[in-house]
Amino acid sequence: MNVAVLGAGSWGTAVATLASKKNQVVLWARRPEIALEINDHHVNPAYLPDWPLPGELRATADLEEAVADADVLVVGVPTHCLRAVVTETAKHIRPWIPAVSLAKGFEEGTLLRMTQVIKDVLPGHPVAALTGPNIAREIMSGAAAASVLATKDLAVATALQAVFRRGLFRVYTNEDVPGCEIGGALKNVVAIATGMAQGLSVGDNTRAAVITRGLAEVTRLGVAMGGKPATFAGLAGMGDLIVTCISPHSRNRYVGEQLGKGRCIDEIIAEMSMVAEGVKAAGTCAALAERHGIFMPICETVHQVIIGAMTQTEAYRGLRQSREEEPG
User: Catalytic positions, please?
Assistant: First the structure.
């Protein structure tokens, strides 16, 4: 198949590498200099500088060139620009080809999931989400990993499995698209909370409690929004949550850790080259919780810290040992 991957960040590049084993892949990079480096030197210096890319992987900064002949469209751009990029893509793409979202989050304002945004812009195209506990660097190294392809169209799911499977990278299917996307989006908020615990040095027991209770919150909201409980105990729920909360490569965990150390959110974001989706997802989570009447204290607390309504120390006040409580 001809596969177009939009977005040359770490995950988009990793997925393009996976797909290039058996398919003709074109990777669209917003920045022409990245496309040039990939084509001339087979490396993405901005996002995966330590990993050589397949010689057959081709990149371009021309969106029309990337998608005109595509049999599969993979959308790996950040959530805040996904609608704009897909809208431009719609001018050049062939009818009916499937689209796969890699983005984990919600659209600001509409609160739509990413597959819903794509369906809104590309009516008539089958849409799926590829999600799960997937750290790009580990996948590029060939380490074993598993992902979930969420779509209600089983025929499309089977065809797409073959596109992304490679080596020790396994792809499972799941018909619960809402559950898979909600789990992937909201785990980023819990990861910020867990990172704050790390930055505040409150201990591994506390971090485990935050992860566990965070999963319970995500599950409650996810079920209220149409997801299946079992989904949140699987790869797209608990699996993705665990890796995002504990991995040193997790952008959202890093944001939380820096917050826990007393830094302000604007300073943290300014120094990052990649997007931490949990920062914006925290506000969306708070809005969705209110809409559905779901109690989500961890996610709400993260939102309060991000907007400056609460300090990091206040967020963990009930979970930190005071000097009076310290053993003699």
Answer: 187
